Amino acid sequence: MHLDQQKKQARELLRAIRAGNEDAVSRLRRQHSRWAAVDDVTIRQLAALHDAQFVLAREQGFASWPKLKAYAEPSSGSRHSRLFVADVAWIAERVHGLVRTRQSAGPAALEQIREWHPRFADCTDEEIRQARFTEEDAKLVYAREHGFETWDDLTNRVNRLASGSQTATTEPFMAAFSALQSADVAGFQALLRANPRLANERGTNGNTLLNLAVSFAGRREWNGGVSAIEALLAAGAGVNDANDRGWTPLHQAAYSNKPEIAVILLAKDAALDAEAHGSGGTPLVVALFWGHREAADLLGRHAVAPGNLRTAAGLGIPELVEACFTGKRTLTPEAGAARGFYRPHSGFPDWQPSTDPQEVVDEALVWACKSNRLSVLERLVRAGARLKADPYRGTPLIWAAACNRTEAAAWLLDHGADVNQQGTFGGLTHGQGITALHIAAQSGHMPMVKVLIERGADRSIKDDLHHGTPEGWAAHSGQTEVRDYLRSLGL
After folding, report:
1. pTM above 0.85?
2. Residue-wise over 299-326: b if at least 16 C-beta within 10 A, else e?
3. Whose CA is closest to 209, among 255, 244, 176?
4. How many Å apart are CA 319 and CA 304, to the nearest integer?
5. Is 424 helix (H, G, I), strand (E, B) or coil?
6. Whose CB has fewer CB within 10 Å in the chain, the N or C terminal residue?
């Protein structure tokens, strides 16, 4: 939203009112109670610019012209976030996520609360975690962060944008996001040239356009991502500007397994040690969490941060794994440190990692299997890692299945893993009582499905929540090749 544009529209509306334009006069009466019962002649004679400005403000969801002005042209010290999704339910889900994860949230999320909620302005991180924090509190945080006094003011603005009464063109950040979403690189670059400050503005949850552009560039069908990213960097976008969860563009490149984008960001001095979603949540750890070997190998060549056991196991470097022990099983203090990151988004359940050595080695085995690091599996098992462990929403075999790591799965089965063990995976409403075959079928990983079947996977086992078989999970996810293969095996 440009203030100059709003001022121009106000002047045009005033001229239309004074000319007796029926629609303009109707807008004035509808939005400004002072003029509701005044006759046309008097309106044409007495209506002033501030009246037209008030009409524009109310039509766009603001209580007054000064509030619209403050939103359109924030002070130099303001860090207000810009709307980029005109959907109240979508923003409400962000609110719910903040409430759900507050007690385990990283410093960036706690800073979001401290900055935008007056009651928590002087609280420490631990005080915020322990305090009563309701949905209404979170709503106030999001309202204030977007430059509104109340949640109702925010939702009023969002609903106006969603209704089409005010299009996304009144919000340059939203228009830029829309261009990214539709892969309109030329349109995006034109918006950036017309609105240079977009390069450093923040959207909902503190996401910059650079972060969002990297996110879109992670999609196979989006071919203009690199051009948009380079345009933003050339315009001065901060390569290390993190969102309200500490997530930087390099985190997003790791999450999307895009080493070619990571190279561009690293050339601009992207921070390898920036932490998101908890302690130790570096870009490297994000890549390893999902078993993204390509991004992890690139990042690991630059820096191994943090240097704990699960990172070493995920990279599959025997020397780093060995350095985490002072004997066959005794862990160094560093081996279990900086393990606060465990969920890349709030859809995963709340969890606090412990310092229990058993949990540390079990988790390391899972991380090695995600990335198919066979070179360290035997060492971890000798250290006491359990093949049946389910340290955080996924056994070693289930995670190997999720990442289609057939060699790791075969190794686990060769060494005694139960092909039909039921475990957990993902969110609480998803993977309860599932087997590795459920996850492989859902993901369409045919090579993994065949390995599991050959090793005796039971196709009749049903999960605990949806009571579905692996064939049913494949069908529900649209994995027709896997569904047909399992169906062809008969009863």
Report:
1. no
2. bbeeebbbbbbbbbbbbbbeebbeebbe
3. 176
4. 13
5. strand
6. C
